[in-house]
Amino acid sequence: MSTITSQDKNGNTLEFNPYEKKYRYKVNGEVKTGCTSIIDPRFGKAGLMGWAKKLPIEALKWQMRDDGKPIDEIEAYISKLKTKVDELSIKDANIGTMMHTLCEDYITGKKPVAPTTEPLKTMFPKFTQWWDNMKIEVIETEKTYYSEELDACGTVDLICKMNGKLGLIDFKTSKTIDYANYVVQLSAYRKMIMDSTYYKIEFLGLVNIPKDAGLPINFRKIKVKNDYLKAFKLCKQLLDFENDYSKQLSDWKKLINKQRREKLKQKQ
To answer: Is the Cβ–Cβ distance between 6 and 145 less than 8 Å?
Structure first.
């Protein structure tokens, strides 16, 4: 899959490249920030995940030293352990991506081949059984939207109709959907959809597809609240501040380095 291009009601050309790590979104050729890139760091997600990965490894390293293990043996073991942790992180992310693809294919009638390995082997039939029991009309899937007011883009899993009402639903494969950043994300998506289309989104929804075989699908409808969108705007303000401050800091360092070079020339 290469870049996906679409037009919104305002005549903007939206580009989305799902495989681009840094610059995934463009509007009229100009790079734009994605919704989750604005929200997640402000909620400490990136920092906490890094801390959660690093702390147990450091604790084990400390314990091995206390147990009198030689330093070369410790470092070799820790290096292998770090590699395994990174592999598990990638595997977990890939499971989420594959499950999203399976969900999209199934709800759009493409009849995907059932996966044969866990946890997808358990997750997929669990989802299909849940979906078949729901009365949901698919309107759009995996489409990109843009809000000029928010100056941000997002790709929405599903726009649908339930009980005659239009809403958006996001699929999650995390252990829980109790995170505050999820409702902020959905509220930003709603704003983007309504700013770039003629859809009037009346409800928000989260579908949790757990990896654990013993846990059922959890579907939660969320009321639209202005406070959720305000939270996104605050995240955006913080990001803008961080970017502005980084530029100021960079300019200051360049000035200091320039002054140092000039002083060195004068001494010579």
So the answer is: no
Which sign does the torsion angle of CA 183, 215, 108, 37 carry? positive
pTM of the model: 0.83
φ, ψ for residue 212 (rounded to 5)?
-70, 125
And the tokens for 99?
């499950």
What domains sit in the chain, N to C, each tagged with a CATH number?
A: 4-233 (3.90.320)
Question: How many percent of the chain have pLDDT more than 70?
Answer: 93
- Beta strand 165-172 pairing with 152-162: antiparallel
Query: Would you say residue 127 has pLDDT above 70?
Result: yes
Q: Is 60 left (phi over 0), alpha (psi -120 to 50) or beta?
A: alpha
Amino acid at 165: K
Burial of 197 (0-12, 13-18, 19+ CB in 10 A): middle
Distance CA 18, CA 98 (A): 13
- Maximum Cα–Cα distance across the chain: 82
Tell me if residue 70 falls in helix, strand or coil.
Answer: coil
